[in-house]
Amino acid sequence: MARLMTGAAKQTQNLVTRRAARQLTGTAKQTQSLVKHLTVREVAAGRFQGNSVELGWGRVYGGQTMSQALDAAHRTAPGRVVHSFQAYFYRPGRTDEPMDFSVEALSDGRALACRRVTASQKGVDIFSMLCSLQSASAAPARPLEHQRPLTAPAPDDWRPEAVPTLQERMRPHEALLPTPLRKIYLNDASPFVLRQRDFTAPSETGASEPATSSYLKLAAPVGDDAALHARLLAYISDWGFISTALRPHEGISNYARGVQLATISHGVTYHRADLLRLDEDYVLVRHRSPSASQGRGFVVAEFFARDGTLLASAQQEGVVRVLMDK
């Protein structure tokens, strides 16, 4: 009997190992695919083109457009890495049409360069970004540094693995998810691992504090290119952002019918792009919404490393409307 139990245990362990290996292989492929997808191709001097992926929303994901626009800007400013950008979304993008990017060089100084990037489809502008890029070699000899400290969680309390993944959180609520979104929320081979500390289930409609915190990291290594990590942060920074403004309103959620959410503007400041490595350790992101009024919601976010270093800050304003009674 002991031998049979030992054999059964080994079979179970081997099965779990094979499944984990397949999942690891899947996440590596998905991560590589994402990096390739966010890399635009040059079609002429200062002109680039990228393709879109349908994620289930029926329109281009804003994080994709921002990341591809940053790639286009970086390609015209070699040796520099973005330290801030502000983007505006004019119209929703179509996933079945390529995205055309044009880059205008506004300035090229010793330390800083400025670029304006415009995205269009079929000749119609849908997005614009103003970004500033910095040369790492032009850092001041005596930089001034300070930062408001991260009070919690302390490094000793930093336990992201104890928080369920987004897929683990969502799986019990699969029936409540719109069918097109299930491949995002339930995909174990996602290129990003997201662990939301204060998760709200699709079935929950009560009011709560307009703030969330989550751990995030890349599921597989991508190298140490600082510009790439900045672009990947821009990509994931659009996830779960404006929906934070819905949390204090009872009966309203981004899963409910008749709720309209759309990004108007989105900006990111990279305080420590030199330390940003999304594939090495989890990053803590904190969202909070200080205001919503006149059909618009405003949300800010901060991205922290495990040691409490503030890596980046972001802010987003978006359309927040209830089109019909629940």
UniProtKB/TrEMBL annotation:
Q: Which Pfam families is this protein grouped with?
A: 4HBT_3 (PF13622), Acyl_CoA_thio (PF02551)
The record places domain Acyl-CoA thioesterase-like N-terminal HotDog at 57-133
Q: Which CDD domains match?
A: Thioesterase_II_repeat1, Thioesterase_II_repeat2
Q: Which residues form the Acyl-CoA thioesterase 2 C-terminal domain?
A: 211-319
Task: Give the source's domain of life in one word.
Answer: Eukaryota
Q: Per UniProt, which keywords does this protein have?
A: Hydrolase
Q: Does this UniProt record's set of keywords contain Hydrolase?
A: yes
| Cross-referenced Gene3D superfamilies | Acyl-CoA thioesterase, double hotdog domain (2.40.160.210)
The entry assigns this protein to a family as follows: Belongs to the C/M/P thioester hydrolase family.
- Protein name (Swiss-Prot/TrEMBL): Acyl-coenzyme A thioesterase
The upper taxonomy is: Eukaryota, Sar, Stramenopiles, Ochrophyta, Pelagophyceae
